[in-house]
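dumping these here so i dont lose them again. two proteins, back to back, each one seq then structure tokens. dont judge the mess
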Amino acid sequence: MRFFTSRVIPDPTRNPSTAHHHRRSIVTACRAVLLPRFGGPDVLQLRPNVEVPDLNPNQVLVRARAVSINPLDTRMRSGYGRSLFGPLLPLILGRDISGEVAAVGASVKTLNVGQEVFGALHPTAVRGTYTDYAILSEDELTPKPVSVTHVEASAIPFAALTAWRALKSTARITEGQRILVVGGGGAVGFAAIQLAVASGCNVATTCGSQSVDRAMAAGAEQAVDYTAEDPESVIKGKFDAVLDTIGVPETERIGVNFLKRGGYYMTLQGEAASLTDSYGLVIGLPLASSTLLKKQLRYQYTHGIEYSWTFMRADAEGLNEIRRLTEAGKLKIPVEKTFPITQVIEAHEAKDKKHIPGKVVLEFD
């Protein structure tokens, strides 16, 4: 059964001696999981002939081998960000990918057809990775380390880049600093522990009982099971940065109080999307900006700290560092279970019902 059509044409603008590096494989249609409307897992539809757009000069066509399911995928499916994404339906979900380069745009310099790559799309991308052929920009991809499989690689980039953005771009962590990760059991929290340890920081984390040993094995100096102990009474001293992956009022209060003056509190749960969903873009976005500004001013005044909402964005330097750490065995995100792409509904159901606490990956044949 053929899932896609393709033809390969030489690019006449290129020197024939280098043409094999830059063959433009034109895939016109392929399988993709579409989200025609918001709702439960059953709204997802695997369609056989979804159009593949032409590549822009800086884009890369990737033949998917594995894509991971992120919390953002299940939240978007349920309607999170509907003010932004509603008018753009149907969408293709998915952020992470590992696969092979099938074609490159005219200005792509660092990647070649046939190369194994992994990477992640921006949170607002409309054509995601749940498809045989995904399109990413050159700076959203990097060569896949040979030391990991496509399944393992696909679990890493989105979570690790989210953690990287907070720790490296915002807090600019340096060797010898103390970092607190609230929620070290999830993919972003676990990536943050490993990135901070690799940067020579001393790391404490709060997590569920099932994640304590893993956090310690990853190099955390203290891992507190928040279900059994009160983090405020067992974690001692102050921190240079707190990454809060849970982002409820209680974790925000605790995190802020653990910071030194001049420290950074960063939460993944910024209110921009929820406020725009509630009030629409015209009212919601300015409301989100003023909410953030109020908190920044208040915490600067009361605690002398920097407060920010953090989210993933493409960062070629970050992705290359993530690749190096993965290659060196210093960064990994365990995959709990894999499903074939044909069972995407079952995979989303399992995540929704919290049957599988860890990472779930969708595999392509």
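---- next one ----
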Amino acid sequence: MTKFPEGAPRLECPRLQKMGFCRLLFLVNVLLTSWFSSAKGEGIHCDFPKIRHGIVYDEKKYEPFSPVPGGKILYYSCEYNFASPSSSFWNPIICTEAGWSPVPKCLRICFFPSVENGHSTSSGQTHKEGDIVQIVCNQGYSLQNNQSTITCGEEGWSIPPKCISPNSAGKCGPPPSIDNGDITSLSLPEYAPLSSVEYQCQNYFLLKGNKIITCRNGKWSDPPTCLHACVIPEDILEKHNIVLRWRENGRIYSQSGENIEFMCKPGYRKLRGSPPFRSKCIDGHINYPTCL
């Protein structure tokens, strides 16, 4: 005789039981019951929430059990300089049929300072991502691109809250400094748009990149870099039992990119697996061969 689970609805069919129909009807009844339970909201699941600039409370504990069952409540907070729409530190969200409710999000917080050469009613206040602030510039000044508003976005203010004079727009300050090099002319405190300066490196350093940079839209183009030279001291040669093939021993300088050839000292042989005798100076580094 078929044994019914405790609490399950019973079907009375003693005459059909020998034919197996009662078992079949029972299975159909169980499937219908499961379907109606799902229709009432059971069986709902949500993917574990991934919140940009946000952290889920006890994330390492709950994430392995993803997806999260319906009705489960989780809490999240936002990173520094970001806040939830409610501005609470810990924010509850619940898994529903429509997904997480309320939708978890972290919005950027933008502090609005006082306006240089202008003013705004928002001076000294904080705003959230999406807020638009009106700025009034003093006579003869304007925001970048002649705008009158700035917007708080995910990366901060859309443009600096600073009113500038049209006469100074596009100018650049002193050109950027570089290691082991400098410009070939005297540095000025201010440069007109489309001005150019030229760089040079110190002795034995190799210039990489464009040696001339230009001021455009108030910014300098990328400056070059000066690659380190390779210094080959006598004690390094002694340590590896090698000598220079084409030069006399001593303190040698080679520019980055130059090839240098070595050979074993008399009475020595190249160590198996040693780097080749011909090596290249790469920004101050040489892969030395070794002899034994």
